[in-house]
Amino acid sequence: MSNTKIIVAGPRGKMGSEALRMIEKQDHFELVACVDHKNGGLAVKDIEYLPNLDAPIYEDIEQCFQEVEADVLVDLTTPEFGYKHTRLALEYGVRPVVGTTGFTKEQLSEVEQMAEDKQLGVVIAPNFAIGAVLMMQFSKWAAKYFPDVEIIERHHDNKLDAPSGTAVKTSELIQEVRDQKKQGHPDEQETLEGARGADVDGMKIHSVRLPGLVAHQEVMFGSTGETLTIKHDSINRESFMTGVKLSVEKVLSLQVLVYGLENLLE
Ligand code: NAP
């Protein structure tokens, strides 16, 4: 079987550079190009802190797709560019694996439709860490019995979107099993705007941003005389790479959008 040819968008980023190191270690993966908004014309190996790989860097993603044959685009950029890159990849017949968070519901539906029209696989995973996927699944299970729930997510302060994609995904999974309920006292009032966090279907999401953090989430359930907290911590970005690798392998045989790593696990 031939190697899977991969383009990485966002190679200098914290996630993108980790993805390059993961790809370098796999015998069946080949980095064929990178897309960055800087360093066009250089190769990955020309950038001091990146792996010694000969792949060219393109600033124009369309030019990259036109000149380089690839199977998969791994996108780890920003919400604005991630969406644009995903659409263009599908137009050029390249399967996207998207870790970039912050896609709106409308954007997800559009990508789903495009994937179906083109019969091409797409994986969009708000969290590639297996432990985080389990945390979300355990939370969904617990919400059946504990409808009182609040989500607290904590991330580094360079994160652009809030709440995190993981928190949004968790709330969506919980909504599948929880009867709609407004959290807190029916007459509660915020004397400081935002004190009670964001509201999803009556559930509250609180976003903390501090240097030193990576990606962390607690889902807190309360009931009569007891609380249950389900907690996950990514202590470094290598934690996400098992999921990126699995998604690249699986996307090759998909013809639809798969949203969430849990849908790729046995
Ligand atoms: P980061 O360190 O800021 O990396 C983003 C990179 O994208 C930067 O190098 C940035 O360059 C580059 N970039 C910006 N615009 C670009 C464009 N048009 N084309 C190509 N590259 C571009 O952020 P990160 O922590 O790696 O996170 C990247 C994304 O992954 C975010 O959306 C984050 O929320 C998400 N994330 C997902 C997971 C998951 O498991 N799914 C886990 C962690 C993070 P400049 O710095 O020069 O602007």
UniProtKB/TrEMBL annotation:
GO terms for biological process: diaminopimelate biosynthetic process; lysine biosynthetic process via diaminopimelate. Residues 131-265 form the Dihydrodipicolinate reductase C-terminal domain. It catalyses: (S)-2,3,4,5-tetrahydrodipicolinate + NAD(+) + H2O = (2S,4S)-4-hydroxy-2,3,4,5-tetrahydrodipicolinate + NADH + H(+); (S)-2,3,4,5-tetrahydrodipicolinate + NADP(+) + H2O = (2S,4S)-4-hydroxy-2,3,4,5-tetrahydrodipicolinate + NADPH + H(+). Transmembrane segments: none annotated. (S)-2,3,4,5-tetrahydrodipicolinate binds at H156, G165, T166. It is found in: Cytoplasm. NADP(+) binds at K38. Residues 5-128 form the Dihydrodipicolinate reductase N-terminal domain. NAD(+) binds at G10, P11, R12, G13, K14, M15, G99, T100, T101, A125, P126, N127, F128. InterPro entries: DapB_C (IPR022663), DapB_N (IPR000846), DapB_N_CS (IPR022664), DHDPR_bac (IPR023940), NAD(P)-bd_dom_sf (IPR036291). GO terms for cellular component: cytosol. Its EC number is 1.17.1.8. Pathway: Amino-acid biosynthesis; L-lysine biosynthesis via DAP pathway; (S)-tetrahydrodipicolinate from L-aspartate: step 4/4. PROSITE patterns: DAPB. The active site is at H155, K159. Keywords: Amino-acid biosynthesis, Cytoplasm, Diaminopimelate biosynthesis, Lysine biosynthesis, NAD, NADP, Oxidoreductase. GO terms for molecular function: 4-hydroxy-tetrahydrodipicolinate reductase; NAD binding; NADP binding; oxidoreductase activity, acting on CH or CH2 groups, NAD or NADP as acceptor. It is an enzyme of class 1 (oxidoreductase). It comes from the Bacteria. NCBIfam families: dapB. Homotetramer. Belongs to the DapB family. Catalyzes the conversion of 4-hydroxy-tetrahydrodipicolinate (HTPA) to tetrahydrodipicolinate. This is 4-hydroxy-tetrahydrodipicolinate reductase. It comes from Pontibacillus yanchengensis Y32.
